[in-house]
Amino acid sequence: MSGRGKVFHRNGGVPEYNIALVGSLGVGKSALTVKYITKRFIMEYDPDLEGTYTKHEDWDGQELLVNIMDTCDKDDSEAMRYLKWADGFLVVYSITSRQSFDKAREYLELVTQHLKNTSRECPVALVGNKIDLERYRQISKAEGSSLAAEVDCSFFETTAAEEFEHVEGVFQRVLQDIHQEKYGHVLQPLVISEDKAAFFASSRRPKSPRGSSDRKEEKNTAKKTPTTFNKLFKIFN
């Protein structure tokens, strides 16, 4: 992005983007977060660990601050902690788990209803994780795409276990749309490889989802300190 296209906060800081990852325990939210921030893959992690982590992006000369909330919902959890906080959502399920896919549908409904009630526009992406475990697949790509189409949100399949660029592409695609919602213009894409260019071209633009009631009407007329991130590495290093 050229200098004239840069965006700065009124306090002189760089623009910030808040992304919340939601989904069942064990779907790989932490693994996706760590992969995006460090390019590393951690196979095991503490499922009860929730934290908000920060990554500085240099987007073609434009500095961005990306805050990522790796959520862990429990019986006494309050969803508003991420529903009010997030500028965009990644609703994650594992392609090897039917239960996690059903839970992802519930999360999409939760986010949809919140955005409708608050009249907010936030990009939402449904993410099928663990495609490296294709032999254990329970959810077809068509099922995932169909669910995303039901609420008119974006859809991706990826894995934290393999190429960093695929995970990075999911986050950057959502970042682009958050930027457009916040500042009214497109964040120019980085110089990317042919593989990532094909990924971007084949992925639908993330947008605010709409609920089933909205579709029927048309037919009829969501910070912990960085030390939390350090704890994650102390556990598995």
Give a description of the structure.
A hairpin with a 2-residue loop joins strand 2 and strand 3 (62-70). The termini are far apart. This protein has 237 residues and is of the alpha/beta class. It has a single domain (3-217), classed as P-loop containing nucleotide triphosphate hydrolases (Rossmann fold). The protein has helices at residues 29-38, 80-83, 98-118, 141-151, 164-183, 194-202, 212-220, 227-236, and strands at residues 16-23, 51-59, 62-70, 88-94, 124-129, 154-157.
| CATH C-level name | Alpha Beta
CATH level-4 homologous superfamily: P-loop containing nucleotide triphosphate hydrolases
What is the H-and-E element order?
EHEEHEHEHEHHHH
Beta-strand content = 15-25%
And the CATH topology?
Answer: Rossmann fold
pLDDT averaged over residues: 80
Radius of gyration of CA atoms, rounded to a whole number: 17 Å
The number of helical runs is 8
Coarse structural class: alpha/beta
Major sheet: arrangement of strands: 2-3-1-4-5-6
Compile the SSE list and pairings:
Layout (H helix, E strand, L loop, with lengths): L15 E8 L5 H10 L12 E9 L2 E9 L9 H4 L4 E7 L3 H21 L5 E6 L11 H11 L2 E4 L6 H20 L10 H9 L9 H9 L6 H10 L1
Parallel strand pairs: 1-3, 1-4, 4-5, 5-6
Antiparallel strand pairs: 2-3
Short key terms for the protein model shown above:
single chain; 237 residues; alpha/beta; Rossmann fold; 8 helices; globular; disordered C terminus
Sum this structure up briefly.
This protein has helices spanning 29-38, 80-83, 98-118, 141-151, 164-183, 194-202, 212-220, 227-236, and strands spanning 16-23, 51-59, 62-70, 88-94, 124-129, 154-157.
